[in-house]
Design brief:
Pfam families: Glucosamine_iso
Oligomer: single chain
Organism: Saccharomyces uvarum
Strand order of the largest sheet: 3-4-13-12-9-5-6-8
Structural class: alpha/beta
Largest sheet: 8 strands, mixed
Family: Belongs to the glucosamine/galactosamine-6-phosphate isomerase family. 6-phosphogluconolactonase subfamily.
Strand content: 15-25%
Mean pLDDT: 90
Number of domains: 1
Number of strands: 13
Radius of gyration: 18 Å
CATH class: Alpha Beta
CATH architecture: 3-Layer(aba) Sandwich
Main location: cytoplasm
Distance between the termini: 11 Å
Subcellular location: Cytoplasm
């Protein structure tokens, strides 16, 4: 496997050994592998800011969605804590959406919005205003199918026709958004009319969520996965060596590879054996 160093001044890749970054192409999917987390988060931030700048050349707002989990911590590190990148983030021109959300009150510890607010929004200077679009949690305590479907339908109504960037995580089981592998979860992957759907059987609690479906990802300008840590080793092997068609992440790579990037660290990628692509 060739080791690459990413040279920002040259705009692409210069082959070298003993460098921090590998950039690999699996079909049309760009995978960037980093040995140091600080380099991963900085380059992720550069990628996001580049997408921001490209979007703002054409439109007054940068429309981006985020997921939960460790992705939010990475966003804090690259967009808030990184002193080089933080001044370049035009927060007032961001329109932020959520790729999935747990059907819990927004103040609940499991809320993706709540985590994003605590780890990112609350760390910004008080004068900074960010347009954040979260679900209406007034119905969450009802807990019935009608209410949960209404929460999903109402969130779909506030989505733009297309997002400039969708930021995604990858679970150890290969799920992303709240699109899970397995036969009983395929109703979400087969959804073609609803852009946001109710996931009523998440294998990890809380079981009730709303999630983007594939039509949202299809219309997005770019998709970006972030995966870190030893807990992702087996699933990275399944995705990039075995290309397990039952995994939502593999399906997304195949359907939308031309606009899909992965930012991963060596620890997560150590079991991937593929040499040619």
């Amino acid at each position: 496997m060739t080791i690459y160093k990413e040279e920002r001044s040259r705009g692409w890749l210069e082959a070298e050994h003993r460098q921090l970054t590998r950039s690999i192409w699996f079909s049309m999917v760009a995978v960037r592998v980093f040995s140091e987390r600080a380099t991963l988060t900085h380059q992720l931030g550069e990628f996001i800011v580049k997408k921001q700048d490209e979007a703002l050349l054409k439109n007054p707002y940068f429309k981006v969605s985020v997921s939960g989990g460790s992705l939010i911590n990475a966003l804090h590190d690259c967009l808030v804590a990184d002193k080089q990148l933080a001044p370049r983030v035009e927060w007032s021109k961001w329109q932020v959406y959520f790729s999935d959300e747990r059907i819990v009150p927004l103040t609940h510890d499991d809320s993706n919005y709540g985590t994003f607010k605590k780890d990112v929004l609350d760390k910004l200077p008080s004068a900074v205003q960010v347009n954040v679009h979260h679900m209406d949690d007034s119905l969450v305590l009802n807990g019935d199918a009608q209410s949960n479907n209404k929460i999903a339908a109402e969130y779909e109504q506030i989505l733009p026709e297309s997002l400039d960037l969708v930021l995604l995580g990858c679970g150890p089981d290969g799920h992303t958004c709240s699109l899970f592998p397995g036969e009983k979860h395929k109703y979400l992957l087969r959804e073609t009319t609803k852009r946001v759907a109710w996931c009523h059987d998440s294998p990890k609690p809380p079981s009730d969520r709303i999630t983007f479906t594939l039509p949202v990802l299809k219309e997005a300008g770019a998709l970006c996965f972030v995966a870190e840590g030893s807990s992702k080793q087996d699933i990275m092997h399944d995705i990039f060596d075995l290309k397990n068609d039952q995994l939502p992440t593999v399906l997304i790579n195949k359907l939308y590879g031309g606009k899909t990037s992965w930012f991963v660290n060596d620890e997560a990628f150590v079991k991937v054996q593929t040499k040619t692509f």
